[in-house]
Specification:
Its main location: cytoplasm. The protein is α+β, with helices and mostly antiparallel strands. 27% of the residues lie in helices and 29% in strands. It has five helices and eight strands, in the order βββαββαββαααβ. Strand 6 and strand 7 (143-144) form a beta hairpin.
């Protein structure tokens, strides 16, 4: 038995579980947005943090890392229980459709419903400065919100696939914090030491309710 999980946020740099294989790749027609509240890790119910989820955007790609877990039902169960505790703000798992020939099939992605009425963690979009101020000031039991976006920015740079929207938001957070080390994506792409990585189309996505989704073989 095997299952794959795709990380596009903190899983990219800190999966937190034992995995057997890691593949750098992208999923089509989705992009990261900082529209999800975190109230128990890097924020509180009174002052929620902002973390990223996926938003449908035709023609876009979202780069990240896919992790493979092998080793039998017990290992899979333990890993999935860990992920569901960690990703508790995400109310859906998303599983690929078999409509193209992806590098990986049967991949799970934690996503969220973009609806404030049905999903209490969904904050929705906000002006860049407002999001940056929230990220700059929020903190919780696992640390502060600004470290989340700075770590994500660095992780995407390290895999050779920066996200300009993340850089823009991170730079706005730096301005609020009064730091001067703003990043220019094109300059860093040209001068960075990361070598280009082969593109893998991991899968297109098909939304399924969290309680109905199951790990599948690949």
């Amino acid at each position: 038995m095997v299952f794959w999980v795709f990380g596009y946020g903190s899983l990219v740099w800190n999966p937190g579980f034992e995995y057997d294989e890691k593949v750098i790749g992208y999923i089509k027609n989705y992009r990261r947005v900082f529209d999800l509240a975190c109230i128990d890790h890097r924020g509180t119910p009174e002052h929620p943090a902002r973390t990223c989820t996926l938003e449908y955007a035709e023609g876009d790609v979202c780069w990240g890392a896919a992790f493979c877990v092998r080793g039998g039902p017990e290992k899979e169960r333990t890993t999935m229980e860990y992920l569901e505790r960690r990703e508790c703000e995400y109310d859906e798992k998303t599983i690929e459709e078999d409509s193209v020939q992806p590098a990986i099939t049967g991949m799970i992605v934690f996503t969220s419903t973009p609806d404030k009425e049905s999903n209490k963690y969904y904050l929705g979009p906000a002006p860049l400065e407002d999001m940056a101020r929230q990220i700059a000031t929020a903190y919780g039991p696992c640390g502060n919100n600004r470290d989340y976006i700075f770590s994500l920015e660095k992780a995407l740079f390290d895999i050779g696939h920066e996200d300009d929207t993340i850089i823009e938001l991170a730079n706005e957070v730096r301005k609020i914090l009064g730091t001067t080390d703003c990043v220019k994506s094109k300059e860093r792409k040209m001068t960075g030491s990361s070598s280009p990585l082969k593109a893998h189309v991991l899968s297109p996505l098909n939304r399924l309710p969290l309680q109905e989704a199951v790990a599948t073989d690949s």
